[in-house]
C-alpha cells in the first residue's frame, strides 16, 4: 500500500530551481534513503512533504489525499507526519517529558496521564526514562536526537522523516541514534531519511534514491545503487565519497 | 580515605586567602578616603548651612512624612495596575507585529504606528493630553484624572515593552517554530507554548528595567493633580517653604525601587548563568 506519493514536484528559491520534477512513491513499512551532495535538495524535499515549504508545481499525496491542495489544512497533515531535523530540535524551556507530551496534550487532546505513560514507555525504550525530568541542555547530542525521535513517534505518525539526524553528532554518538532507527525499521515504521551515512543507508534502507540537479537520478535497492550504479553521475558521487573515506 | 591536599596546594590556598584579605582592605581604605573627601567638600561649601536647613531639616521631614507616605500608597497602587496593564498591552502589540499573514497587514501597521508614536512622544505631553485634553471633550462617562493619567503611562510604557517583547520573540530560532509546527501545533499554540515562553525568559531583565523606570514615572501623575507622594510633598512645601518633603519623597521612591532592582539583578544573573551553563564564570 502506498503511503506517500510524490509526483513531479518542483521547488524554486528566488527563481533558482532546487527541485525540478521529483517523483517518488513510498510504500507502507518501507525505508527510503535520500542521498546526494550537499545542496542537492534533500532537506527541501522533506520540508515540502511536511508542508514547511510550499511546492511550486507537482503534487504530493498522503494516503491518497492531495496534501499540496491549498484547501488541505497543513496542521492536519503535519499531525500525521513526524519529522526530526539535524539540530535545534528540542524546546529548551521544556523538560524532556514535556517536550514529548506537548503535541499529544495540545494537538491530540490526549488525557494527561495517558500522554505521560505513553511518553515514559517510549523514553524507556530508548534508554532515557531516567532523563524524563531533565532539560535538553543537560543531555548529550545523541540523547537529544533520541528524544527528538521519541517526540515525533509519540504521535504515531503515518510517516517519519529524518533529516540528517546524525550529522551534527560526534562520531561516538552516531551509533546510538542509528541503532534506534534500525529498531524502528524492525517495528515497521515507514521512513524517509536524508543521510550522508552511506554505510548506514546501505544497511537499513529498502531503497536508495540519489538526488542530483533537482531530480532523482537513480533509485533502487542499496546493493544495486551502491554496488552497481547505472548512472555516471551516481558513480562520480560515490567515487567522491569513497575518496573522502566515508564509504 | 579523605582527600589530603599536597603542600603545594596548601601554599596556593594560603596565598589566595592573603590576596582576598588584601583586596578587602584596599577597598575599605579607598572607600573611607573618598567618603571623607566628599563629606569635606560638601559640608565645606559656602551655602551648606542654608542648604541643610531647607533640604535636610529633620523637623520638616518628621512633619511631612505621614502625608507623603499616604501619597506613596497611591503611587504603589498606580504602579501595580499600570505595570500589569503595560505588560499585557506590550505583549499583545508585540504579538501583532510578528504575525506574518498578509490579511493582518492593517493590524500590523497599526501596532507599528503605535510603538513609533508613543515611544517618541514625551510622557509629560501624553499625560497632559489625556489628563486635561480628554476631559475637555466633555464626553459623558469620562473617567477620573487619575485613570486618564494611568492610561497615559500605560500607553507610553506599552510601547517600550512591546519592543522588548518583539526583540525576544524574534530571537527565538526559526527552527523552533518549524519543530513546533511540524508536530501539528497551530500558529497560536506555537506562539503560546513554544515561542513566547522562551521570549519572555530572555527579555525578563530588560523588562524589569523598564518597570524600574516606570516606577519613577508614576510620580509624574502629580502634575495632573492626584495627591500622590510628590504632590503631597509639594503641598507640604508650600506650607512651610522648606524643600525637605521632596527629599523625603525621593528617599521613599529609592527605597521602593530597591526590591525591584534587586530582583532585576538576580534575574539577570540567573539568565546569564543559564546561557553559559557555567556557574563560576
Ligand atoms: N529558505 C531558502 N531560501 C533560499 N534558498 C534555499 C532555502 N532553503 C534551501 N535553499 C537552497 O536550496 C538548495 C538545496 O538545499 P537543501 O537544504 O535542500 O540541500 P540538502 O541536500 O539538504 O543539503 P545538505 O546535505 O547540506 O543538508 C541549496 O542550494 C540551498 O541554498
Ligand atoms: Mg539538508
TrEMBL record, chain A:
SUPFAM superfamilies the UniProt entry points to: P-loop containing nucleoside triphosphate hydrolases
Record-level GO cellular component terms: plasma membrane
Domain ABC transporter residue range list: 4-238
One term of GO molecular function: ATP hydrolysis activity
Membrane topology annotation: Peripheral membrane protein
Record's keyword annotation contains Transmembrane helix: no
Sorted UniProt keywords: Amino-acid transport, ATP-binding, Cell membrane, Membrane, Nucleotide-binding, Transport
UniProt subcellular location: Cell membrane
Superkingdom in the source lineage: Bacteria
Predominant subcellular localization, coarse grouping: membrane
InterPro entries to which the protein is assigned, alphabetical: AAA+_ATPase, ABC_ATPase_HisP-typ, ABC_transporter-like_ATP-bd, ABC_transporter-like_CS, MetN_ABC_transporter-like, P-loop_NTPase
Transmembrane segments: none
Similarity comment: Belongs to the ABC transporter superfamily.
Protein's UniProt name: ABC transporter
Annotated source species: Dactylosporangium siamense
From TrEMBL, chain B:
GO terms classed as biological process: amino acid transport
Keyword Transmembrane helix: yes
Entry's transmembrane regions: 20-42, 72-96, 116-137, 144-162, 246-267
Membrane association type: Multi-pass membrane protein
Keyword annotations: Amino-acid transport, Cell membrane, Membrane, Transmembrane, Transmembrane helix, Transport
Entry's localization field: Cell membrane
Molecular function in Gene Ontology: transmembrane transporter activity
Family from the record: Belongs to the binding-protein-dependent transport system permease family. HisMQ subfamily.
Name of the featured protein: ABC transporter permease
Record organism: Dactylosporangium siamense
Amino acid at each position: 500500500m502506498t503511503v506517500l506519493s510524490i509526483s513531479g514536484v518542483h521547488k524554486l528559491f528566488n527563481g533558482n530551481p532546487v527541485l525540478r520534477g521529483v517523483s517518488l512513491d513510498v510504500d507502507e513499512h518501507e525505508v527510503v534513503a535520500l542521498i546526494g551532495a550537499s545542496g542537492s535538495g534533500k532537506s527541501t524535499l522533506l520540508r515540502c512533504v511536511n508542508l514547511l515549504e510550499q511546492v511550486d508545481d507537482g503534487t504530493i499525496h498522503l494516503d491518497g489525499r492531495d496534501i499540496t491542495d491549498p484547501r488541505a489544512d497543513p496542521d492536519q497533515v503535519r499531525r500525521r507526519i513526524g519529522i526530526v531535523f539535524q539540530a535545534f530540535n528540542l524546546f529548551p524551556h521544556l523538560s524532556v517529558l514535556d517536550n514529548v507530551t506537548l503535541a499529544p496534550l495540545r494537538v491530540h487532546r490526549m488525557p494527561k496521564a495517558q500522554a505521560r505513560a505513553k511518553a515514559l514507555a517510549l523514553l524507556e525504550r530508548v534508554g532515557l526514562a531516567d532523563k524524563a525530568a531533565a532539560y535538553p541542555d543537560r543531555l548529550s547530542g545523541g540523547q537529544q536526537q533520541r528524544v527528538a525521535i521519541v517526540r515525533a513517534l509519540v504521535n504515531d505518525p503515518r510517516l517519519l522523516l529524518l533529516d540528517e539526524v546524525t550529522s551534527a553528532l560526534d562520531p561516538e554518538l552516531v551509533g546510538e541514534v542509528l541503532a534506534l532507527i534500525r529498531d524502528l525499521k524492525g517495528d515497521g515504521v515507514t521512513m524517509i531519511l536524508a543521510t550522508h551515512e552511506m554505510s548506514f543507508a546501505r544497511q537499513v534502507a529498502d531503497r536508495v534514491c540519489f538526488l542530483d540537479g533537482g531530480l532523482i537520478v537513480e533509485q533502487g535497492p542499496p546493493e544495486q545503487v551502491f554496488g552497481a550504479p547505472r548512472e555516471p553521475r551516481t558513480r562520480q558521487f560515490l567515487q567522491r565519497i569513497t575518496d573522502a573515506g566515508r564509504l | 580515605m579523605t582527600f589530603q591536599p599536597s603542600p603545594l596546594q596548601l601554599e596556593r590556598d594560603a596565598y589566595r586567602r592573603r590576596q582576598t584579605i588584601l583586596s578587602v582592605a584596599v577597598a575599605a581604605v579607598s572607600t573611607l578616603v573618598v567618603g571623607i573627601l566628599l563629606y569635606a567638600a560638601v559640608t565645606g561649601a559656602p551655602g551648606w548651612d542654608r542648604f541643610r536647613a531647607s533640604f535636610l531639616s529633620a523637623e520638616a521631614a518628621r512633619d511631612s512624612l505621614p502625608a507623603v507616605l499616604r501619597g506613596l500608597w497611591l503611587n504603589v497602587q498606580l504602579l501595580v495596575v499600570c505595570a500589569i496593564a503595560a505588560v499585557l498591552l506590550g505583549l499583545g502589540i508585540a504579538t501583532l507585529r510578528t504575525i506574518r499573514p498578509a490579511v493582518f497587514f492593517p493590524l500590523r501597521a497599526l501596532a507599528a504606528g503605535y510603538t513609533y508614536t508613543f515611544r517618541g512622544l514625551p510622557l509629560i505631553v501624553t499625560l497632559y493630553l489625556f489628563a486635561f485634553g480628554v476631559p475637555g471633550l466633555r464626553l459623558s462617562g469620562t473617567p477620573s484624572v487619575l485613570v486618564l493619567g494611568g492610561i497615559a503611562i500605560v500607553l507610553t510604557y506599552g510601547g517600550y515593552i512591546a519592543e522588548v517583547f518583539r526583540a525576544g520573540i524574534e530571537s527565538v530560532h526559526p527552527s523552533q517554530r518549524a519543530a513546533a509546527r511540524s508536530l501539528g501545533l497551530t500558529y497560536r499554540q506555537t506562539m503560546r507554548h513554544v515561542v513566547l515562553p522562551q521570549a519572555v525568559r530572555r527579555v525578563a531583565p530588560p523588562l524589569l528595567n523598564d518597570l524600574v523606570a516606570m516606577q519613577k514615572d508614576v510620580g509624574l501623575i502629580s502634575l495632573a493633580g492626584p495627591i500622590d507622594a510628590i504632590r503631597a510633598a509639594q503641598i507640604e512645601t508650600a506650607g512651610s517653604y522648606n524643600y525637605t518633603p521632596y527629599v523625603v519623597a525621593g528617599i521613599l521612591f529609592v527605597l521602593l525601587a530597591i526590591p525591584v532592582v534587586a530582583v532585576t539583578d538576580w534575574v539577570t544573573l540567573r539568565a546569564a548563568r543559564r546561557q553559559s551553563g557555567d556557574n563560576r564564570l
